[in-house]
Amino acid sequence: MAKIPSVVDSLSGALSPRVVLALLALLAVAFIGASQVQATKQSAAPWLNPVVTPDEVNGMVWVRANLAPRTVFATGIFEGELLMGKARMEGTLGGDWAIVPDVITRMSDVQYRIFGAKDSKEAWTTAHTYNASYVWVPNRQTFEGYEWKVPAAVFDNATYFQKVYDRGILRIYRVNEKAA
Amino acid sequence: MHRDGFSLTAVQSALLVLAICVSVYAHIGVFDAFLAPTYGNTGIHQANARELVETGQYPFQNDFSYGGGIPNLYVPIYRFALAQLVVMAGLDFDSGQRWMVMLFALALPLAFFAFGSSFGSSFGAWVGIAAAFLASFPSELLIYTIRPLPQGLGLVLLALAFALVLRKSRAAILAGVLLALVHQEAAVFFAVAVFAVGVVGKVYDYLGKTDTPMAMTALWAWAATTATYFAWNFLILGHFNVFELAQFKHHEGGPVSMTLLLDKTGYLLLVLAALGSVLALWGAFQLWTRKKPFGPEAFGLVVLGVGLVAVKNDVLGLSVFMDRFIVYWQFAFIFLAAFGLVFALQWIAGQKPDAEAMASSPAGCVQAAELA
Q1: Between chains, do A44 and B146 touch, taking CB under 8 Å as contact?
Q2: I need a surface site. Which of A11, B67, B256, B345 has the fewest CB within 10 A?
Q3: Where are the domains of chain A?
Q4: In the 8-state DSSP scheme, what is residue A113?
Q5: What's the structural domain count of chain B?
Q6: What ipTM goes with this model?
Q7: From CA B322, how far away is CA B301, in angstroms rounded?
């Protein structure tokens, strides 16, 4: 085992002032880099927010037990993604918009004529336009392409919608085929 | 032993492991929330993988998106990989998505090591190690690889594909084909970048009476990538018209300002990339004056130029995906920054390049540092 003084001697021989300067420069880059990685992690953190809630994930148990795959729900973007990913359902929004016909009109309609409808009838009519059999209504802000808003209180109207699930912040409504 | 003839020393190997640890540390947040990340349409990929696992069928003509009933245009390899991982590892889909991100975390520094080490020799090994660390610096690259999306796999493949082109390997053609079936945007950037490298390389050869085999590899990789994507488009939609996609019609993406670029990249990487660009320009000029083939320095500069055009395509009247291309531009930043950092440190340490070495190495002036 080398004695400490001999190690110091050999190091001092190898470490010319220029090598020491290079090592200091490398240390400076490493120091700034370490804080950069921390800042980068903080920048990425908001992208890890799932948006949807545990109550909604729990709602998937009911959905899978009671509905056939590919049933269409009126949803915002994140809720549509959750339903397709967890239960192979389809949402009026969510997924790849590359070849969706009239996709801007669809987003506007779902935002302002279902979840932001002025009354139950408008929500029901628009849900039918997009072949939605159910509506997914969490009691939190949702996003349909234009703005984050809490869904309008238009679904508790048995003439147009039947509540089939109500746990935690999630309510699921079946869209009546005909107005009762 | 590296194929270009160098072995990693124990110190280099340890540093590469450390770079992987930094990447894992940066990505570990994917396990923080009760559910895997949902931003970026992660559900649609899970849905297709789930359909494959639960029914044994892939829905080529019936996408889940926006009420369903439309052809499934998104390229499928990532979804196949997720389904494979879930089945083989016995995971639920949520865990499978998170572990997919951890695979990106492990593979990304290794892919950037391969890309940076294309300079060859021990100098290239140091550039590769620097690139492996620098890959954890830009927030945009982390944002795209910390979510379970095809982008993550596409970005790993992009770095590998660039490395294969630089090594003049025919596997670059296969990498282009794979990339075209993993992620469209990454494939577009790769195709445009290698096309530019091929054309600039051929013009360089014509004017300088040199021979750059890398240029031909780049053009083959461009042809394979482009043909594969258009074949997929035709298979699913029955036509080749990509300009009818919503991304083009509705001009998806926002403009890129200097503030946004700084926010997404960080000062350190930009400063090092600027240093690397100046040195690469000088190195490429040295090669040109000595009638040596187009090297990695010029490759980095061409990709840098392609990235600039991509993020400012609104100036050309396209206005498609401008800010989405920042992450691909960062590939050139990392490559050039790693080159600049290693060159500068060797120069400070007194390892000056000499003219003879500059004239004899495809890595240009920088390899001379090792002979000084």
Answers
A1: yes
A2: A11
A3: 4-48, 54-175
A4: I
A5: 1
A6: 0.90
A7: 19
